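User: Hi! I'm working on a homework problem where we have to compare a predicted structure to a textbook description. Could you give me the structure for the chain below?
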Amino acid sequence: EQMDTKPFELLDLDYAYRQEISNYIHSLSPQSINNIKKVIKLTEGFESTLALEILATVAYIIHENPAITLSDTIEAVRKWSPRKARLFSEQYIEIAYSQIQTHLYA
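Assistant: Happy to help. Predicted structure tokens:
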């Protein structure tokens, strides 16, 4: 099923597990709930498989190189793999870079 998803197709939620997820969230510590809220804010606007992959890739690069610039991040993505170099436009990388800087390092 996941492999049938198109790059810009939004991910669907399976509401069959809503109650189970709600129970789990209510059992979490306040710190864990706060962390979930941060992840929701960070991923806002990145609801397709491709967008999440771009965000995760850029987040990993920044995590490994905290002082990295946008241009060096773009270069690191290009060197990561031919597939990422082909699929991830500079604009998408810049948007992800900005999102990470705003929500993780603000």
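For your comparison, note the following. The longest helix spans residues 49-64. The radius of gyration is 16 Å. Good luck with the assignment!
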